[in-house]
Amino acid sequence: MKKTTLFPGFPTVGAAILGAGALVLTGCSASAPAAPGSSGGATPAKVSPAAAGTCGSLPTDAANDPNGLLSGLPKEIAAGYNLYPYEIRKSAWADYKSKKTDGFTAAIVGMPPASPFIASMSAAIRTSLKADGVKIVGDFAPDDPSNVPLQLQQFNEALSLKPDVIIYTAIAPEPSVKLAKAAHEAGIPLIAAQVPIDSEYAVSVTRNTPLAIAQVTAGTVAAIGGKGNVLRVDGIPGIPVSTFAGMGIDAVLKNCPEVKVAGSVTGFFQPATAQAEVQKFLATHPAGVDAVLQAGTMGVGIRNAFVESGLEVPPIADDGSSHGFSSWALANPGYPYFGTTTPSVRTGEAVVDVALRILKGEGPKINQIVEPSVIVSRENLAKVADPSWDHNDLTDLAGNPADYLPTDRLNAFFSNPGA
């Protein structure tokens, strides 16, 4: 009898929205999966970069920059906005400087710490604020990650406290656009942590999800030679991160006429749900597929679905990777692996850094501070993964914190760095 790989349960909508914000989920260990068929001890074939416009190449769609603002950034930073959907605008805080020079106050409006990423990032925000002498006058989070009305109410409560800055991780970015304008009218800078807001009145500090998804998708389809049948595993339809993920996948597949989508399931950004849905698909497609393209964070569950179905694990695009999948890939050198890291602590530190720079008058040039994800492949997997990690550990793969928005890179986003 096959044993069933178990994950802890989450309320579907709540966990999905947490995945939307951070592309991470929490979990605990289950029994270790088997190695992937005949690939276990082999050396993977080297995946050569695909020629532009061919299957496996990275698309280069222009950033949404109608006013050419990215031309004011170094070329290597501007390139990180490839596929980014939100319009790049001049920041409404470009000429702002607080009347105070110290004794700053901050209010935090976040998400409940139900995922490792959110818990770690939020803790880093608090620690960094306190280390910089910033008094936290309000620290809010809704009781459930699906409670949008309560979070909006909490934001207004934070606004009423009249802090010098608000740090906000939105459950729902769209209704937050009005909140950003209200904060600007009150003279309070708003920093959107991890979940971007499409407004010149907020300064978003985030990663480029469509680009990250496109990068791991391109590597994955190149690993199967640019042809074959693939399964798509979506997050939750209608929320921004699922839309962004779909954009990244579609941008790659448009150059892949010989890659056929054999089916699509919805995993709600939950490894357990993804495993169950993929197993249902495999029950009616016993030959399996050549690769899996997913919206993120569900790699362990998808992998286990193939193991439990008695099939070799195909290449799985692993955006938002975990300790479990990365260590399993490390233990199986014949497996073609493409994933991304998620440095939660450094994200929190960078958010606070941006907030203090604005208060001190450094002048943010644009409204979207975007950092490309660090791509993990066979070439650097051993540097970021630990072979001792449990193969079902859903903890985020943090990578090297120094890779995410280091000081010299952040300087480029401000007109007067060090002011």
Automatic annotation (TrEMBL):
UniProt KW Transcription keyword: no
Subcellular location(s) per record: Cell envelope
PROSITE patterns: PROKAR_LIPOPROTEIN (PS51257)
Secretion signal span: 1-34
Annotated protein name in UniProt: Periplasmic binding protein domain-containing protein
Keywords: Signal
SUPFAM superfamilies: Periplasmic binding protein-like I (SSF53822)
Chain ranges of the Periplasmic binding protein domain: 114-362
Family (UniProt): Belongs to the bacterial solute-binding protein 2 family.
InterPro entries xrefs: Peripla_BP_I, SBP_2_dom
Source organism of the structure: Arthrobacter humicola
Lineage: Bacteria, Bacillati, Actinomycetota, Actinomycetes, Micrococcales
